[in-house]
Amino acid sequence: MISQNSFLTERLEVQNWRVLLDCLTGQQVLICELSTILTPKVFEGLPESLHLIKDVDAVSLWIEDRTAECEVLTIRSRLDKELVGLLITAPFPEADGTVTIHLGYLIGEAYWGRGYASELVKGFVDWHRQLGTRGQLRGGVVPTNLASMRVMEKAGFERMPHLSCEATEMFRLRFC
Questions:
Q1: CA 165, CA 142: separation in Å to the nearest integer?
Q2: Residue 103 pLDDT
Q3: Do 125 and 156 form a contact (C-beta atoms < 8 A)?
Q4: Backbone φ, ψ for residue 106 (5° rounding)
Q5: What are the beta bridge partners of residue 73?
Q6: Burial degree of 40 (CB within 10 A; 0-12, 13-18, 19+)
Q7: How many domains does the chain have?
Q8: Of 16-25, 47-56, 139-148, the least confident
Q9: Considering 22, 125, 145, 146, which has the largest number of Cβ atoms within 10 A of its Cβ?
Q10: 25: domain CATH number?
Q11: Distance CA 67, CA 52 (A)
Q12: Which helix (H) or strand (E) holds 124?
């Protein structure tokens, strides 16, 4: 049976963070882990609305904001269960019964350059194929982030010039 809340890749375990947020201890652990992952470099090029607010409880507020607006999944190493990053998704039902899922990811700086983003996005695509998702996945990339553009292309996404602009290159992958 295919899980609606999680998927595995060769090196990654990806799970909806609601599992952690449903208990106080889980919340505290996640806040602590995210404090080391959510650095200015990780947010570079992302919309201002995704950045941390300068506040004493910045990570807690950030978690509340993301929970209210989208689905977030933790990305962990299967080997040592360390938090590698987050997968952020926002599904939008279409009038024809299909769905458009916007996706983004944050990978901690310590994990850059190891192929985790490519593995994650490919795993996400494979998961939705197994789930029988009808519709499309979309992702935006800052044009200067060549590595993320390559991640999208390797996972089978195509560029969408008509939806792209100077600040964001849009990509799409359609499911039949």
A1: 10
A2: 96
A3: yes
A4: -125, 120
A5: 16, 87
A6: exposed
A7: 1
A8: 47-56
A9: 125
A10: 3.40.630.30
A11: 14
A12: helix 116-131
Amino acid at 17: W
Pair of tokens at residue 63: 């978690």
Q: Which residue segment(s) compose the domain that 134 sits in?
A: 6-175
125-134 pLDDT per residue, tens: 999 999 999 9
Tokens, residue 49: 């609305």
pLDDT digits (tens, 9 = 90+) for 128-175: 999 999 999 999 999 999 999 999 999 999 999 999 999 999 999 998
Distance CA 161, CA 150 (A): 16
Bridge partners (DSSP) of residue 105 are 87
Q: Is 64 helix (H, G, I), strand (E, B) or coil?
A: helix
**Residue 161 domain-assigned?**
yes
Task: Count the residues in the chain.
Answer: 176
Cα–Cα distance measured from residue 130 to residue 41, given in angstroms and rounded to the nearest whole number: 34
Q: What digits encode the pLDDT tens for the residues 98-107? A: 999 999 999 9
